[in-house]
Structures
1.
Amino acid sequence: MGIRVLVTDVDGVLTDSKGRLDLRAISLLRTLEEKGISVILASGASLPTLLSLRRYLGTSGPVIAENGGVIYINGMVEVLAKRDPVLEAWSELRNVLRDLVIESATSFARLTDVVFRPRSKSLVDYVLLRSRSVLEKYPDLELVYSGFSFHLKPRSTSKYRALLLVLERLGLHLDDVLAVGDSEVDLEMLRYSPYSGVPAHAPECVKSVAKYVSQHPYAMGFIDVVLHYLGKELAPSSPTFSP
């Protein structure tokens, strides 16, 4: 049947190096929708953020929020894990990390995780090291770094598991999916999707599982990945998006 769905991360994929949405990537998303290819946004962002983004981008597919902790499909919100253990762990972890991190301003809107960012990227490894003593008490939780923020989340949730659930509800299969991401939270999704790609700035461990690695970073890499797989289907529109 070919590619019927695009599932894509947002930060670092639809944005430029400064975190701003790339207008060419937005235009390409709308072209995909016009060609009958549904776009699923899959991100660590909160559901309200992604629903707003979905509305203004003009995408029609479901939404996978909080790295797979929450999905929005057929007008309904489904929460796939409990947040209570995360909040309990965060109450301890906050004291350990103290002045090393800043909690996300969207915490009030989150349903399954806690998000915080290091005050400097140079602190990433140190934050992970300092967190170990607390996380050892919570084997059902994990702390992942997306390249932008830390996500304290249930181990049971992931973008890939949420994607499988969404596809089942839609009557689709992985063979119908093109997946694009740029960080370790996208690993499973990229590894198991038969069509997958990453921008040039993705870590080596992420590049190693993708089926296609662009020579372009950020949104230009996203555009390149899409054209690599779907350039013929998008013609004559595709020359407009050439990276």
Note: Residues 100 and 123 are 7 Å apart (CA to CA).
2.
Amino acid sequence: MAFRARMGWDFDWVSAGDGDFNYDFHVSFRQDEPVYYNYADRDFECEDLPGMSVFRKAADGTIYHTYSVFSRGTELASGVFQLLDMTPNGRNETGPNGDLTDWVKHHDKYDGGASSCGCGGKTA
């Protein structure tokens, strides 16, 4: 969990990075396999697409998959999108990627480094 350490986070994490979870829940894809995303068959576009799933662990230990959402539906989980949509430039998705990754970065990727972030007041 190197990313967790890099960000300075101390809360519990669960990662799907080393297994087939993301493939099983149809948000990661292999170029040589069929792509099923957002409840439809598609052509291969990329290795990963956005999706969120919710699970419930019952008292007996059984884990239930209770909800999944994909694509633009994941925006509901991030209040920042609704705030940006009210501003004159909106999300400013005008760069080469056509999304927020053109200008939003992890706190340690800005020119000033971690000391310039507002993430819990942590500094380098």
Note: The mean pLDDT is 85.
